[in-house]
Amino acid sequence: MEKPALATVAAASAVTTAGDFVELPATVSHGPLRIEYRWVNETSLDAPIAVFLHEGLGSVAMWRDWPQVLCERLGMRGLVYSRPGYGLSTPRAHDMKWPVDFMTAQARDILPALLDALNVEMQERKRMWVIGHSDGGSIALLYAALYPEALAGAVVIAPHVFVEDISVESIAQTKRLYETTNLRDKLARYHADVDSAFYGWNDIWLNPAFRQWTIATELASIRQPLLAVQAHDDNYGTMAQIDTIAARVPHARLVKLDAGGHSPHRDAPEKLNEAIEAFVLGSVGR
Between 3.40.50.1820, 3.40.50.1010, 3.30.70.920, 3.90.550.10, what CATH number should domain 6-284 receive? Predict the structure, then answer.
């Protein structure tokens, strides 16, 4: 595991203090990748792992201190990483478009390969929780469905199970803001190649072919504890998202927040942390 070249750090400007990096070999679904990651409570080797899966424009740096705060409450060791195309991980080539099933590829291929590269053994994975936000929540659901024996449970925050008009309308508005305001400069603090990160996410969500995307059928394979959280004032999705989860996964627990927007870990952290702590520690204690 190597540190980034000085040129890479310089190109990233003030994105973040460079963390660690791991190389993933090429497979049939992707070329060789360099993944930025950071451990939280790294020395707590006996503690269960919580893997944090970021939103569509997220990264290691954009989580800020929330993974640390939550891991302290849960007594866990945390793994935070930037997906390919985000943060300081391998950027998306500007002529490359994410496929409609890009989140399935992240759950099926990238996350297991990362865990392998970091020597996370199967016994550790069986005690592992995946905690995902927005697109990361969808990836967490897919991982839980694809590998039901390779985790202890999942927490998903403002996940997407299918495409709603409100999501597309808000994402189109975000594109207008990115191209006409200082939003690009703000996001550049979190990504070495901000245009790669932004348009990879924006282009697929605004692709007409993506309107038919859904993972509702896959949810029925989830067997481990599952907590789904949604705020009523989320402008990227409605309660129909987590209600669909409950219909497909009867044992899922839903938490509906009065307020918290699309990012409750930022806008309503105490209520969110309380809900996650009660659910996770209650599930572990059963």
Answer: 3.40.50.1820
